[in-house]
Amino acid sequence: MDRINRNDPCPCGSGKKYKKCCLVGPPPLIPDPDDVLQIHAQALKSMGDQNWQEAISLFRSIEHRIADRLALFQQLGACFDAAEDFLRAAEYYEKALAVDSSNRSNRFQLNYRLGVARACGNRFEEAQEAFRTCLSFLEPGEASVSENLKNLIDTLEAMKLGEAPPHLMLVNVLLQRAMSDMEDERYEQAAERLERLTALDGENATIFYNLGVVYTFLKKEPEAMLQYERALQLNPYYVQAWYNMGQICLIKNKDYSRALSCFDRALALRPDYVGAHHQRGVAWELIGDYSRALECWRKTLELDPQNELAKSNIERVNQAISHSFAETITRKDPINE
Hints:
This protein has helices at residues 34-48, 52-61, 69-82, 86-99, 104-120, 124-136, 143-160, 168-183, 187-200, 205-217, 221-234, 239-252, 256-269, 274-287, 290-303, 308-332. The protein is mainly α. The protein starts with 33 loop residues before the first helix and ends in a 5-residue tail after the last helix.
């Protein structure tokens, strides 16, 4: 952060000069009035429900009345961050840093969030400054964290020089958030985020692949197939995209020949792909070629000896073949005619 002069307005937002506010330390905590406590509790609930704009409005209504300004500034920063208003988020992380002058761990986290918010807001030099500040908080044994921070600083330098896409950090952050949405089964939210990402980076196969996954969970298989196909146009070696397309063809579309083609493409890229061998066997069984189905499941067991599904399928199909053979013999037995 830039150095704050004594006579500058205090960055905490109190309206006072810095020398009469946070420079001499925060004022003693006074219990908040009941209405402030109620509004704060309501804001926290809205935050927990991911109603970011409502939470922001409630937090800001008590911004100059609450005793714990540090917590409030962090909460407002987090809300603006989640709402993707990154420069406003950075403003509140800066205010929090101006209030919190002692907690090393908290200041590291705040500077890191500040760096990410500035990077997403295209403030590359200021983001580098925040990440360099993070480096100053590290202990000698935190080499991996140090390396990650240096990589971020180098990436930002490349973005400044036009050697990397200007939205690279923003794309990575939003993609991570889409993955979190998927883990929490917020598929509609993940789809909306990923759709916006396709406009930012239309050459990123990972975005289209994950959009296909989301549409699969939403049972929008035609849209999922389109996204997988787009991912494969950008990266023909995307094994999981071939496999997922095979699954849709097998289970939803009942297009067993195309399913086999997709599984074959996945196996050409990854010969030890257990799932593709197994599902290839399912496709052959549904076509009626039990010999090839058994061959696929035996290969599955060769790669995964504990695969119970493959064992069960082999036993079931062998029993069906034996039963069919017994019936054939019985029909041809002249004693029973």
